[in-house]
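Reply to dn_fold:

You asked what the input looked like. This is it:
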Amino acid sequence: MKKLLIIFLAAIILFSGCVDQKTVKSGDTVSIDYILKLQDGKVFDTSIESVAKENNIYNSNRSYKPYPFTVGKNDTIKGIDEGVIGMKAGDTKTLEIPPEKGYGDIDPSLIHAIPIIQDIPAIRNYSKIIEIPANQFNRTFGQEPKIGDTVVYPQTNINFTVQNIASNVSLLLNQTVGYKIWFLGAPWNETIVKIDDKNVTTKPDVKKNEIIQLQGAAWNSTVVDVNNENITLRHNAIPDTTVQNMFEVVRVHFNETSVILDRNPELAGKTLIFNVTLRSIDTGARNRSE
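and this is what came back:
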């Protein structure tokens, strides 16, 4: 009897060991804690609150908890996706991930340099007659088009008269020479100096030494000269920063001659050192598909 009990207990232990040996495969849903370092040893990101505080990267607006993803579903970067395969719950592993399996190489086409001293044309020409698709007219002006009606273009003080209605609605600019126009967010107003059959010509209402704010810029600029051809601006340096717009994050950096606008992911071109601890494995989704 004692011998049978020993065999039975051994079988239970062996079975438990097999259960505990469950390893990550493609299709499993897992969660990991991670510490991300760059090659210089600096901690860049982590899912662990205490580590974030120790390395002065704590962000009170985010939640620190294990990161969940499904392996093989492109939920995360390739190096992590591949690196967790074969791990067991509780395992810790260091992954050195090259750019091609991280956030990619740096794309030079996403880096734009603006001269710190920049000339902008002083004279601007606008079409005297503009056209807008008929099906967009109501959304733009809040009314149906009617020949002879006067409408104000949104976020400006520019008046147009409805001239013709077809698949497009033709609008004729109403203003006269000397009229001062403004656009919401523009760095300066403009004065109409000439109108001919096709175009409206304007000049800027801006003076030397004025400090202006270009729309969307994280820095301000000083007007260093104004003449009949150009407005010369000096973009005033600021510390490195990021600008979040509707579509992307842009990193801004000033050097001695240029403002560098970089639209690459911040970790593009970098080798990443991830210390990863596997917290959980859920094989349910994979098992259902097998």
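The chain has two domains: 24-105+267-289, 113-262.
Hope that clears it up.
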